[in-house]
Amino acid sequence: MSIDSVLKYYTEGRRDFHGMELKEAELINGELSHIDLSDADLRQSRFGRTNFSHASFCRANLSEAILWGADLTSADMRQVMLREADLSGAKLIRTQLTGANLLKACLCGANLCAVQMACAILIEVDLRPTSDQRTDLGRANLAGADLSYANLSQALLRQANLDGAKLCRAKLRSEQWRDAFVTDLSEASLCGADLSYVDLSGVILRKANLRGADLTGTVLTKADLKDAIMPNGDVHQ
User: What pTM value is reported for the model?
Assistant: First the structure.
């Protein structure tokens, strides 16, 4: 089915398009809220600034898709494939991304406030800010997620749940003399997280919970650890 046919049926009231093959489809500034594209093949599609709020992409394949500026608020994207997808500036507020594969995806400047990303694969994902927007992961659920080698520099992660997450060699370093923002992990939960060989220089970790975290080779130069719970359970003064 072509994207033009989807738009025609959508206008007529149809919402169920699960399992459709729409590889390399192109739609900019489209309106497809509440659409069901679960199990669909959407590889290399271009959906810049399209409204997909409350849509379903469960188990869909969006590898190498372009979704910059798209509105995916409250969308169901569990187990979706987003390898090397471009989601820069996208709205992913309260989006369900549990078990999603975002290997090498770009999420620069995306709004991921209260997103659900438990057990998601985020290896080498780019979460840096854009020139006008900071990547917001405040209150995000990233428990058990694999963020190895991810670039989280300057990201906002206040009150995020990173229990058991893998952050080995992730980039979180903040250089206040150069960066517009400081990576903020205040009040985040990092219980049992793998932070081995991570450079946390200048990062805000106020009241963060690091109980049981692996800090092998971790650099904490000038990190703000006021009232943080350290791996051994002591509260940092």
Answer: 0.87
